[in-house]
Amino acid sequence: MFKHLSLPCFLFALVVPSAVFAAPKGEKVGSIRGVTLPALKSSGNCTQDAKWNEVKIGTFRQLDCFKTGDGGSVNLELKEDNSIFSIGENSLVSIENLVEKDESGAFKIKLDIRKGYMGFGVKKNRGNEVNFSTGTAAASIRGTEGVIGSNDKSFFAGLKNGDLMIKPNGSDSLSIGGGQTVLGREKFIVLKLKSSGDLSFAKVLNELLSDTTMSLDELKAAVEKADETYQAAVLASKTAHVASGMAADEKVKDAVKLKVPHIKYSSYDSLRCVANVSVSGLQKGVKTRLSATLDGSPISEMSVKRDMPKRVALRSGIHEYEFVVENEAGRNSVKKTLGCYPMKPFSVKVFGNKNVRLQIPPAPPETENVIMQTLQFQIRVPENDPIVLNKVTVRQNGKVLLQERLSQIQNLDYQIPVELKRGIKNRFDIEVVHKSGYVVKTSKVYEVGK
Fold this sequence. Notes:
By secondary structure, the protein is mainly beta. Helix content is 11%, strand content 49%. The chain folds into three domains: 4-42 and 49-235, Sandwich (Jelly Rolls), CATH 2.60.120.1440; 262-340, Immunoglobulin-like; 347-448, Immunoglobulins (Immunoglobulin-like, Sandwich).
């Protein structure tokens, strides 16, 4: 059973809270928890000419934009309640408003799906609100699990559970619940599908909707057929998994006398780029290995024969590591997000001459005699990323004019308006401290004739 919804302007009024608050500077409210390449990120620009960088495990910020290719994906997680947003392949999604705790402790976030699709799993607690917008429709949810997408002026959304309320422009509201999917273009249909809200099935829906030659009835038939095919594949996969599990049980019986070893993380050195872990519970004569992954990709593996501490090499930058110890009986692991900042020389370029003398006539009587200039400099670090910096300080004649620390440092190019005084040397000292402890100092002097 399905129903048509006519949308003359195919615009939806978004049901949103009256205010969405910005996050306090420096507070980590959301994290990138999983990445499958190809996946790129830009900050403050979501166009083709944006500066795109490879997505890394870390914190996401307001106005970040994510672009994925074939097989790429990005998982975003809210800090407090572990709500997840999974951006699918060949998608373009921006964080229009950053997650924030209001007076009641609730989170609010708005995501703009410019192309493609994404899944969501939002916890139903303390009034958390999530808003989506697309080029064709918009929606607001509280505590539910499902998918939403937009492509070629089309729109779809499906729920595993919960409720989704959509308000068409000038028409009655449309509501779908668990197990239902809404999709279409000028007109929309609501279908009862077993695969509703499934992220892998959302890829199938996205591909079907990209075929603009199909009528709404043809699209309905194609989607229902795809749902049957997808469910048959899921059932076949579960059957194979059960058979594999039975074989695995036999192996467990053979290894019943074996014990799974243990691993414990103790510390790490961010300058030498090593992590310290210890393994225990090893059994004599039992082959055991210690391995490490970086953002899900293997980076090292070694054999261990006795209980002992071990050093594992890290890579430059901030990454999520998993340290694993395993034998035939099973595996234990520990995950840590660690930052490695090896000592690397860098420079600070001050634009223009380092000593500048200005001849500016005095202002007429009874007028404000203010002399303004722009102090411009660029921090040149090998990583080309401000995340490796610890502190940036600018002083004017010994007095602090600007100071930023850690997450406050958002760029590497500075243009600072400064006010000069006549008859003295206006000295500006710039000091930049790398997280490795490496320090660069430079200065610029302005003299203004009386």
